[in-house]
Amino acid sequence: MDTEALRSFVRAARLGQLQLAADELGVTQQAVSKRIAALERELEVRLFTRTARGVELTLDGQAFLPHARSIVAGVDRAITAVRPGFRALRIDVLGLRSAQAVVLHDYWRLHPETNLDVVILRVDDPREAAAAVAAGDIDASFRTVTAPHTLPPDVRMIHAFGSPLQLLVGPRHPLASARVLTPPQLRKHRIWVPGIAPRSEWAEFYDQLATAFDLRIDAAGPHFGDEVLLDTLADSADVATLVGARDRYVWPTNHDLRRIPIVNPTLAYPLSLILPRTNPHPGLRGLITHLGSLPRLPETVWLPSWATTPRRGDSAHARGS
After folding, report:
1. Rounded CA gap, 149 and 224, in Å?
2. DSSP string, 97-121
3. Ramachandran sector of residue 92 (left: φ over 0; alpha: ψ -120 to 50; beta: rest)
4. CA 43 → CA 36, 40, 218, distances in Å?
5. How many angstroms separate the CA atoms of 18 and 25, rounded?
6. What pLDDT sits at residue 279?
7. For residue 38, what are the contacts with CB-CB under 8 A and spacing of at least 6?
8. H-helix or E-strand containing 195?
9. Is the pTM of this model over 0.85?
10. Rounded CA gap, 221 and 112, in Å?
């Protein structure tokens, strides 16, 4: 079966237009049309129907798509395995200021020869990121599927690192003068975390955290971005938020915000890396070694339930992360 025909089919299915698929593949629309037509003749089914907006998958096309994606991803990984410099290592992070991006940047600074493409998938459900890894759209994703039995069979999830949480407050907050805090000291204080999306891993994390320590975590209102959040903290005498110790935030000096470590126990957000089960991009080996060299969490640490037992494909014990 012609893999370029399969690649054209997968692109057209994702983009919904043959011209866009052709542009992405660097060929003419006529070439894409001929490839898909040849594929339909070989399969003896119609894969697309034409609409005013482009093309839509038929029922046969919908059934064929995941298998075609898997074949294309396998071909790409096979090529990469023997030609490591052929394609950049594509890794998904939650944001460019997130702990994942900071750790990835640290790795790249140590290994600047790495051909790296940092990607931000605009999805909240980590299962969608896992599907993107399975499809070969990305090589790995710093996401956690908290129910690992729902992972696609051809991907695995390994522990990456744990991110200790800090309380971020403005100068007028009652806790602003503290050098360290314990979880009981956070009770009854409003901890504002906008942007907790349903079905996201962080929604489950904050639910478990609030229950475990009787915390008042408020997700009310839309998330207008970090700048608005930081402005609110600077002006408020009663609002705080939680941030990761490695998360990168920058604010004006007159905000006078304070990052206060939380101890006894340390509250830690566990981060995982989702990658293909077979034929992963060769560039992942060095990154995984780097993740294993990161400082471990303290002995006294709180982790959510899914991080307290080894996950499928994860040989590291969560509390020793």
Report:
1. 34
2. TSHHHHHHHHHHHH-TTS-EEEE--
3. beta
4. 10, 5, 54
5. 10
6. 82
7. 2, 5
8. none
9. no
10. 41
- Please give the sequence-ordered ranges of beta strands (E in DSSP) within 115-249, or none if there are none: 116-119, 140-141, 155-169, 190-192, 216-218, 239-244
Q: What share of the chain is helix, strand, coil (3-state, %, to 5)?
A: 40, 20, 40
> Which 8-state DSSP code applies to residue 262?
B
The identity of residue 155, as a single letter, is V
CA 199 vs CA 115, 124, 214, 221, 270: distances in Å? 32, 7, 22, 17, 17
DSSP letters for 116-134: EEEE----SSHHHHHHHHH
Token pair for 142? 């710093």
CA distance 257 to 247: 15
Q: How far apart are CA 289 and CA 293, in angstroms?
A: 7
CB 281 within 8 A of CB 80: yes
Report yes or no: 292 and 267 within 8 Å, Cβ to Cβ: no
- Taking the alpha carbons at both ends of the chain, their separation in whole angstroms is 45
pLDDT in tens, 125-173: 999 999 999 988 899 999 999 998 999 999 999 999 999 999 999 999 9
